[in-house]
Structures are given as C-alpha cells and as structure tokens.
Design goal:
Length: about 325
C-alpha cells in the first residue's frame, strides 16, 4: 500500500515537472538550429530573427549551423532534440516540403509528425543571377546562349533537393536547355563560386543575391515571382519569358513534437511581436523578404499543401535523388 502511494506520488510529481518547466521557460539560452551553412539566406534570416526574439523572450537565442544533405542533417538533429523549448529549428521550403518527395522513405524525419509548428515567419522569391562575364542581359538571351552551347554553362545550387536546385531544374525543363549542375553545401559557397566564375548561373534567394547584385558582383536577370515586385519594379519576372514559372521560398519556426503547449504559445506570441517590429520589417525588406505570419494551425495546413504541391512538381519533372 505504502509502495503504491509512493509510486503515485512520484508519478504526480513527474507529471508536474513539464508544467513547472513551461511556466518558468526560458531559463537557459535557446538554440536555434539552422540546417544550412553560415552566410546563406536561411542563416541571415535566422540571425536577424534570433536577435529580435532574444529581446522578446529575455533570453539569448543562439544560432547553431548544422549544414549538409540539403538540410537533412540539421533538421534530423532538431527532430530528435528534447522537447523542452530549448532547441528550435528554422525550417524552410527545402527541409519541410521539397525533401519529402525527393527522398521519400529515405528521409530520416517526418516534417509533420516530428515537429510542432510555432509560426511561419517570412516569404521571399528566388532570383536568377549570372556572372557578369556571361553575355546575357535577360532571360531570353540566357536561353539562347544555353541552346547555342549545350552543357557549357554550369549552375550552382545550395545542394541536391534545395529550392535553388529545383528552380534551375524547372528552368531547364521549361526552357528546353542543358545546364551543368554543381551542388554545394549551401547557397553561400555556391554564390561565392558564382562570383569567381566557377559556375555561371544560379537561382538564389533574394536575401543573399541582391546585395551582391547591387555591388556589381553578379548580374540580376529576373525574379521568380508571379508578378514584378513592388520594391523591384524594373526587374522582370522569369514568367514574362517562361509563362507559369514561379519559385517562392518561405521559412518558419518549429519545435520538436511534444514541446509543452505553454512554451509554444509563448513562442508564437513572441514571433507575432517580432514580426510587427518596424526595424525587423525594414531589415527584411533590404533582403527582398517580407514578414508573412501564420499561427500553428494555419502554418500546419500550409505545410501539408506545400508537400502535396512539391510532390506533384517533382513527379512531373521526373526529379530523383538516386
């Protein structure tokens, strides 16, 4: 009898630990895993967002870059971390949507079942950039050049299965051209290779490419949005030459599944406050990105729809990772 009471008391005490922990959270620095290398688009956005989240939460939010395998390494690490709110992930269109049809049963995590969505953060679009030595000043000229010299132009990407890879493969298919794919660990080293003319073409996020294009290190040909962007009205869309071409990007905050609801709610409230901050909005704008909030339920519905959409794109294009 005494033993049963003792066990019951221990069970009750154990059950109270998560609630107490959630009420006190955060008591330690928070690790924000970025599944891509430093200097890339995801990393830049993560550090900017972490800076503002730190102020809202009253605790340091430290970016931890775990690059490799199209974001799989870092995302798997986050999925298997303790669900205590001390480890978060900046998920992307690649880690949570494109990787599902590309890797199938080989994927070491389930983006829906293994994560608790906190909030969607921002949207952006890929841009088509070339090395300044490439004799093409618009999309039509690039297509003509690629058709005249099949396989002579190389394009860089942030790795197999990333948005920069799939964007270029869609471009190749729709334009009927042959480009050589050179994958890198993330978009940052790919952009460096583009600036040094190791590769000549790239679909990159506006976050990392626009500053280099403004500095004359790259030539911006087009944006992969459905219509011209208000902040770049003079930049044509790829769709003006290849109707229907579009490659948007998005990212959001995730926690390991099982993270206590009070912690998730606190994080969601902090994200909403951060995305209303005029300084953050202005700094996002300089990167060609806009805040695009969605709460946990809406974000989850959006993710499921994105997985379905990219499953169809990958199937139709016949893209495989084998």
């Amino acid at each position: 009898m005494i033993r049963r009471r003792t066990l019951a008391a221990l069970a009750a005490a154990t059950a109270m630990v998560p609630a107490a922990r959630a009420e006190d959270w955060p008591t330690r620095p928070i690790r924000l895993i970025v599944a891509f290398a430093p200097g890339g688009a995801t990393d830049v956005l993560a550090r900017l967002t972490a800076e503002h989240l730190s102020r809202e939460l009253g605790q340091s939010v430290v970016v931890d870059n775990r690059a490799g395998a199209a974001g799989i390494i870092g995302t798997e690490l986050a999925a298997h971390s303790a669900p205590d709110g001390d480890t978060l992930l900046l998920g992307t269109i690649s880690t949570h949507a494109m990787n599902v049809p590309l890797y199938g049963a080989k994927l070491s995590y389930d983006p829906v079942k293994d994560f608790a969505p906190v909030a969607r953060l921002a949207n952006g679009y890929n841009v088509l950039v070339v090395h300044p030595s490439v004799p093409a000043h618009n999309v039509a000229e690039l297509i003509a050049l690629a058709k005249a010299k099949p396989g002579s132009l190389a394009y860089g990407s942030g790795g197999n299965g990333t948005s920069s890879h799939l964007a270029a493969e869609m471009f190749k298919s729709m334009a009927g051209v042959d480009l050589l794919h050179v994958p890198f660990r993330s978009t940052a080293p790919a952009a460096t290779a583009l600036m040094s003319n190791e590769v000549q073409v790239m679909f990159d996020t506006s976050v990392s490419s626009l500053p280099m294009a403004r500095a004359g290190q790259l030539r911006l040909l087009a944006v992969a949005s459905p219509a011209r962007l208000p902040d770049m009205p003079d930049v044509p869309t790829v769709a003006e030459t290849l109707p229907g071409f579009e490659m948007g990007t998005w990212n959001g905050l995730y926690a390991p599944v099982g993270t206590p609801a009070p912690i998730l709610a606190r994080l969601d409230a902090a994200v909403q406050a951060v995305l209303r901050n005029p300084d953050l909005i202005a700094r996002y704008a300089t990167l060609g990105t806009v805040p695009f909030y969605a709460g946990p339920e809406e974000f989850n519905r959006f993710l499921v729809a994105e997985i379905d959409r990219w499953t169809e794109v990958v199937r139709s294009a016949g893209i495989t990772m084998d």
